Amino acid sequence: MKPWFALLALLGVAGAAQAQYPSKPITFVIPFAAGGDSDLSGRNVAQHAQKYLNNQPIVAVNRVGASGVIGAMAVRTAPADGYTLLVARIATHAVVPALDSKAPYKWNEFTMLSLIELNPYVCFVKADSAVKTAADLAAEIRANPGKLNFSTAGVGTSQNMAAQYWMSLAGLTKEHAVGIHYKGGSEVTTAVLGGQVQFACNNAPTVISHVKAGAIRGLFVTPSRLPELPDVPSAREAGFPEMEKIVGWTALMGPPGLPKEVVDRWVDTFAKLAKDPDWQQGNARIGGIAAIRSPAETEKFVREQYELYDKLVTALGIRQ
User: Fold this and answer.
1) Cβ-count burial of 237 within 10 angstroms (0-12 exposed, 13-18 middle, 19+ buried)?
2) Greatest CA span in the chain, whole angstroms?
């Protein structure tokens, strides 16, 4: 066989192998514990995407620790073959890179495949509070600087950033209200219910049932009104359109340098998932708003989220 025939044959074999992706099980690394937003979202994609990927199994593995850094690094350093992918979150790709100057990776050191879903946020008070609107809350804080408290899941968490960002939009400083830090998102909501703090902003799934039960009053929701909370205005309707940027989110990413054939296969898979009623229903059950986007659109979104939190970290003086 002539050399150039041999080369063409080899290229044909390589192309066929790439076209057959995936030819073995894929691992989804989920950087947070089972039962959380990233876990539920990632497993929902894994369950329904398999049928569009040669029926190859997608195995979800929780690699927890260091605010998601351990799981993210496991994918950052994995072979760029499409068989180890990251179910990324706002913490791994916006908050941590902005907050930690020594983080072992930058937000854009991954191959973006698609945004998956958004998780609405609700800012709220206890139902028996005299505060009826976001404007009322801003006026109350302004009239009593340093006397009102809000609950967060920690200094560098989105719950803290959300409340602080809203305060800045309302013309308040970080000294106007005091953040009280708890161990997790459920405790953020419980602190308002128990009267330990006067207000909070938190992921909608931990709040919706309490609003429906009449125990919590939602002041506004991001990014838009929720069917489950028809009487709670959107942030824009409440007079704070910039708060629409404050949302939880999940995206699928790979190691840097994923082959185009792998990226294209996932773009095609997500296009099919967007029309898949089973995936849509699963996403709705876990409180997600479907938000599938192209790799370029996903990168733009993640960049904007990183830049938002980078500015907040600077303004709050909490960079580590």
Assistant:
1) middle
2) 87
Nearest to 207 by CA among 287, 284, 268: 287
Query: Cα–Cα–Cα angle for 250, 240, 67, nearest 5°?
Result: 30
Q: Quick one: DSSP state of residue 233?
A: P
Peptide bond into 145 cis (omega under 30): no
User: Is residue 300 helix, strand or coil?
Assistant: helix
Residue 32, SS3 per DSSP: coil
What are the backbone dihedrals phi and psi of residue 284, each rounded to the nearest 5 degrees, phi first?
-65, -35
Per DSSP, helices labelled H in 107-231 are 134-143, 158-169, 185-193, 208-212
Q: Are 150 and 174 in contact (CB under 8 A)?
A: no
CA-based nearest residue to 203, from 313, 305, 287:
287
pLDDT digit string, tens, across residues 23-45: 999 999 999 888 888 899 999 99
Phi, psi of 151 (to 5 degrees): -95, 145
Model's pTM, two decimal places? 0.84
- Across the strands, what pairs with 199? 150
User: Per the structure block, which two tokens stand in for 189?
Assistant: 């909501």
Q: What is the mean pLDDT of residues 92-105?
A: 93
* Residue 104: Cβ within 10 Å count: 15
Q: Residue 30: beta bridge partners? A: 62
Contact yes or no for 240/220 (Cβ under 8 A): yes
